[in-house]
Amino acid sequence: MNYNYDGDNMNKIKYFTYLNLITENKKIHDLKTYALENHVPIIQKESLDLIITIIKVSQSKKILEIGSAIGYSAINFALLNEKITVTTIERDEQMVKEAKQNIKSFNLEKQIHLISSDALLIDEHELGHEFDLIFIDAAKSQYQKFFEKYTKCLRKGGMVITDNILFHDLIFETDIKNRNTRQLVKKIKNYNEWLKNNHLFDTRFFNIGDGVSISIKK
Ligand code: SAH
Ligand code: MG
Fold first, then answer.
1. Which residue among 64, 92, 210 is best mutated to probe the pocket of ligand 1, counting the most ligand atoms within 8 A of its Cβ?
2. Residue 11: which pLDDT band, with cuts at 50, 70 and 90?
3. Which of 56, 89, 194, 213 sits CB 3.0–4.6 Å from 119 for a disulfide?
4. Could you report the per-residue pLDDT of 78-116, keeping only the tens digit for each?
C-alpha cells in the first residue's frame, strides 16, 4: 500500500489510508506486523479506527471482547485510557499463551483480563460486569449465540460491535463450492438479518473493513 499522497493514482481506499495515517507506537506496529506475517486475523485498521473513535466518544470503560487472538485489539483498546478494562475471551490455547505474553509486555495485566475458554461455555453472570461495549470477533458461525448470551451483561445504552459481517465479501458470492463455507456464509447472512429485525437494539451496518455493525441496546 502506498501511503504517500499520489494525485495521479488515488482511489478511495488509498486516500483514506493516507488521511488516517498516524505515527504508530513502535510496539503496536511490531505486534501488527507479527500478526500479519503469521496470518493471525486481527482487526483491519479502518475498523479499529472506527471502534477507537466510538470508545472515546461514548467514554466506554468496561469492554468485553469475544475472540482475543494474540491480544492486538484488546491492547489497542486498553491503551486508550488507563480507566478502561477489557475482559477478553479466547478458546485457542496457543493464542492465549501469546496474548498473555503480549499483554504483559505492554504492562496491561491490570487492565486486560484474559479468559482462556470457549466463550459459549462460560457462565456470563460470573463476569460480574455491566459492560459498556461488547466486541464480537470470534467464530462467525456463532455470532447470534454470542450476542444473545452476552447482551445480558450489557448495560442499557451500551453497544455491541460485530466485526466481519461481510465475511471477505463471500456474502455476495452465489456459487460457493465448499459446503462448510456456504453454511458459514448463510449463518452470517442470517445473523445480519436477525440483527436488522431485532427491535431490542438499534443497529446500523457499516461498509468499513470487512463490514462492521453497531447495535445499541434500547
Ligand atoms: N479480536 C482479535 C482477533 C480475533 S480472531 C483482534 O482483532 O486482534 C478470532 C479469534 O476468536 C481466534 O483466535 C479464535 O480462536 C477465537 N474464537 C473463535 N471462536 C471462539 C469461541 N467460541 N470462544 C472463544 N474464542 C473463540
Ligand atoms: Mg475480525
1. 92
2. confident
3. 89
4. 999 999 999 999 999 999 999 999 999 999 999 999 999
Domain boundaries, the chain: 42-217
* Cβ within 8 Å of residue 166, ≥6 positions away: 207, 210, 211
Single-letter code of the amino acid located at 32:
K
Which atom from ligand 1 is nearest to the alpha carbon of 92? Answer: 15
Q: Which atom of ligand 1 is nearest to the CA of 71?
A: 8
How close is the Cα of 163 to the center of ligand 2, in Å?
5
The CATH architecture one would assign to domain 42-217 is 3-Layer(aba) Sandwich (3.40)
For the full predicted model, state whether its pTM sits above 0.90. Answer: yes
